[in-house]
Amino acid sequence: YEPEAEPGEVDGVIASPTCRPWAIANVGRSGLDDPRGQLIHVPLRWVLALRPRWTAWEITPLALPVFEQHAITLCAAGYDVATGLLRAERFGVASTRTRAVLVGRLDGPARLPPPPHDVPVSMAQVRGWDGAELVSNDGTSGDPRNRGRRAMDHG
Prior knowledge:
single chain, 155 residues, alpha+beta, 4-stranded mixed β-sheet, two-stranded antiparallel ribbon
């Protein structure tokens, strides 16, 4: 699809390209060699065409180098850009997932947000349940023996 709006008519573009070609859990991951992996370039094309004031993208961490290359292109187009990794559970999401993020702005400095939580937020906390246990797969490289466990009390 091509954008139907004119440059400047859109304030922001949020993008989350398909993760499967980049996912750690996908042992056959092929990144840009997978036709679906090419979808990672669509947000860049749309932002360059629409010229929104801001943009925010997210994807699995293995695609961060592609976002960093896109950041160079966006900077050349006048955007201030920040890229990096954010941990979902530090932002009130009951999921232990690290995400690669790109944020860009035409009207000021782009910054990744600081995490509002020092410790992970669990489903127990989100739902108000006491006594649950957090089992984290983050950083396990797919080995279930490396899962972290800790009590997650509400409050």
